[in-house]
Amino acid sequence: MSRFPLALGLAVLALIALTGCSQIIPMTAADDANNPGCAAVIVRLPDTVGDMPKRETDAQATAAWGNPASVLVRCGVEVPRASTLPCIELEGIFFLRDVSDKKFWKFTTFGRDPALDIVVSRKAFTSPGIPLNDLLNAVSFLPPNGQKCTSTDDTVTGQDIDLPPVPTTAPSPTPAG
Hints:
This protein has helices at residues 4-20, 36-42, 129-139, 152-156, and strands at residues 48-49, 52-55, 62-65, 71-77, 87-90, 93-98, 104-110, 115-121. The protein is of the alpha+beta class.
């Protein structure tokens, strides 16, 4: 009897055992995922978020943590301009907060180009604070684009923003002649 089939069988079983523990997380790359600003963030992402280990993903400029994946990052998403979503500021970084999904919190950087989404499972975390804080250092490498939230005091509470009237330009004086 040949030992080759036995060796091949053991090798296949070992491969299945090794890959079964570390499945690749399927994700879709954002339209601007190849932006160099995304690379600056992705290489700085932490190995753990909370106590969850980083997982391998199958798309450029993406990351995931936990088993099941409970924190997802996708860089190169559409850069938000004006928004009615509440805005929060953490250490000088603005995030639009979308709480419309009952299973996840979604945060999109505001005032950064390229922009980045962070999705946090409500089942895995009682608050999104730990994942956001763990990711802040890496996110801080996204280049600012000059936009800022109008007033985090107003938007965090969900109240309407009362903007001052838009100034109009006065006619310039005509030189006497």
